[in-house]
Specification:
about 70 residues; mainly alpha
Length: about 70
């Protein structure tokens, strides 16, 4: 007789964690774009340049979106 499985299998668990991290990263990247647009009227600074680069290099933009 088979026992009923409780919870996720390893593959399902990894998939859920990966999708969660991807959604958080996407939110950070979008926040980076909003913060970049907010900075458009000001001076050109190192953070401004990093945010512009972060639009095209999504991992950098995802991290900068939270700061």
């Amino acid at each position: 007789m088979k026992r009923k499985q409780y919870g996720f299998t390893a593959v399902e668990g990894i998939t859920v964690v990966w999708l969660g991290l991807a959604l958080v990263a996407l939110g950070g990247w979008i926040a980076n774009i909003f913060k970049l647009v907010d900075m458009l009227g000001g001076d050109i600074s190192a953070m401004f340049i990093a945010r512009v680069v972060g639009v095209f290099a999504a991992p950098l933009g995802a991290v900068l979106g939270f700061f």
